[in-house]
Design a protein that fits this description.
alpha+beta, 3 domains
């Protein structure tokens, strides 16, 4: 492959055709300028906007048909005139390296070359069929914006700029992947995001050496602090408002071209239980719902194991009527409680996976009918007890309450380990497992930020948005990993205005 473009137009076109495979979608459109210089527009027809190409051709033709005699210009001068006066396009850049021209073609640009000069112009004419901005399918809300990210990195960065109209919003672009040459954007707010986090993110991205990046999950595994953990150390979101809120709290976003899921870091444990809707409704309702989510996480992780431990080792903890009822149900069950629980959990996981992989129209019907039929048939056949079906069903429902799918998956994985510990050692095994899980979580870091912040280390000022969500006017500062001038959310003037309004309302005056 050549290092630089040559002055021969036909040689450059021929080399591009060879390197790109010479498919029918590789188009080289030759034209003559008014000065008699030969030019060529090279583009991939499936990746460009036809209207933009037509405007470029029309502008060149209009220049050729303009009044005045034919001028004889040197190739370099004619090429500069083409760029400055003729092309009616919004954005273009000059190229001198052959590899840059190939990459521009693969990005959807049109490469314009002229015979006699070793330079080219990359006109931004990318287009083609793309999905429009639609509602997020994985993070739905009742109240709040309905927009969701798309697969286009340009569209995604635009959605963020519309929400954060600040000159401090910074977007740094990178190309990662030797074969895919995937565009990756690093987005942050200068003055709010920690300089250490910005530098660390760039360092980790620059260390990635792979042939392909097809989704943000590739990036997440490469730059995460620790791989051997069930807990996610980076947050992903399909909602522009959620990513904008993260940027305003000092997080840094990574947008990958070709996927609607944007990564956010650093992240703490409590972030996975916060929903965008928490901040769009009253603080007392948001606090109640967040408490429900934390309880659901514990239920999803511990309820089957507690049932196994109590029915196997600690029957004295149950009231006598309940104990007699459970004993009557388990009288004909041939399996011990631990095997019964594992059998039901594995069956439910298979049904869940089948519902996801099946076509969207019949997937929910398969999972619901399968759960009802198999559960009822298993109870009637005496393979499992009715109480176990209730426990597993309620556990499954609780797992769906967690806003983050990744955190819900972590609870599902830990659930199996807890069932085995409960069947072997009872509640003592569950407590030992919880101690190991807590110690493991305390040792996790996300870009240097403790995973359990502000619980461990204990930061009293950050507890206003953990389990309890205080009113907006009371959240004066950002989270603790913002450690410099941008840590304050509200100015002193805002606080004085709020206090003046409170005094007026208490005195019975007009708060306006």
């Amino acid at each position: 492959m050549m290092d630089k473009l040559t002055a021969s137009l036909e040689h450059n076109i021929e080399q591009m055709m060879v390197d790109l495979g010479g498919g029918p979608d590789i188009v080289a459109r030759r034209m003559l300028t008014k000065s008699g210089n030969r030019i060529a527009l090279v583009y991939i027809s499936s990746m460009i906007d036809a209207d933009t190409i037509n405007r470029i051709v029309q502008s060149i033709a209009a220049e050729n048909n303009s009044s005045g005699g034919q001028e004889t210009l040197e190739a370099a001068e004619a090429f500069q005139r083409l760029a400055d006066r003729t092309l009616s396009i919004g954005e273009y850049r000059s190229l001198s390296k052959y590899q840059e021209a190939i990459l521009a073609l693969l990005e959807g640009c049109t490469v314009i070359m002229m015979d006699g000069t070793a330079e080219a112009i990359a006109a931004h004419t990318s287009g083609g069929d793309r999905r429009s901005v639609e509602e997020s399918t994985t993070q739905t809300v009742i109240r709040g914006p309905k927009e969701g990210f798309t697969e286009s990195i340009v569209t995604n960065t635009t959605l963020l700029r519309r929400r954060i109209k600040s000159p401090n919003l910074r977007i740094d672009y990178k190309l990662i992947g030797r074969e895919t040459q995937t565009s990756v954007a690093v987005v942050y707010l200068k003055g709010i995001t920690s300089d250490y986090i910005i530098e660390e993110m760039h360092r980790r991205l620059d260390l990635i050496d792979t042939d392909s990046i097809l989704e943000s999950g590739y990036i997440e595994e490469f730059i995460a602090d620790k791989a051997s953990t069930p807990f996610p150390l980076m947050q992903n979101s399909e909602r522009p408002d959620a990513v904008a809120a993260g940027l305003l709290e000092g997080q840094i976003a990574v947008i990958v071209d070709g996927t609607p899921f944007v990564l956010l870091a650093p992240v703490t444990f409590v972030k996975f239980f916060q929903s965008s809707e928490d901040y769009y409704q009253r603080f007392d309702i948001a606090t109640f719902l967040r408490f429900i989510r934390f309880c659901s996480f514990l239920v999803s992780m511990l309820m089957p194991s507690l049932y196994v431990a109590i029915t196997t080792f600690h029957q004295e903890m149950l009231p006598t009527p309940l104990l007699i009822s459970l004993a009557a149900q388990r009288e004909g069950v041939p399996f011990p409680a631990i095997l019964e629980a594992l059998l039901m959990e594995i069956t439910f996981e298979i049904l869940r996976e089948a519902g996801v992989r099946m076509p969207r129209i019949i997937g929910p019907a398969i999972s619901i009918v399968g759960a009802l039929v198999l559960g009822q048939a298993a109870v009637q056949a005496g393979l499992v007890s009715a109480a176990m079906v209730i426990v597993v069903s309620f556990t499954a429902i609780a797992s769906f309450v967690i806003p983050s799918v990744n955190m819900g998956t972590a609870a599902r994985l830990i659930r199996f380990i807890m069932i085995i510990l409960a069947g072997s050692f009872g509640i003592f095994g569950i407590m030992a497992g919880l101690m190991v899980v807590l110690a493991h979580m305390a040792g996790l870091r996300s870009f240097g930020v403790p995973f359990l912040l502000p619980v461990s280390p204990f930061v009293p000022g950050n507890w206003r948005d953990v389990i309890v969500r205080v009113p907006w006017w009371a959240m004066k500062k950002r989270p603790d990993f913002v450690r410099f001038g941008g840590a304050r959310r509200q100015t002193a003037a805002d606080q004085q205005t709020k206090r003046a309004g409170d005094l007026q309302r208490k005195s019975g005056g007009d708060p306006r």
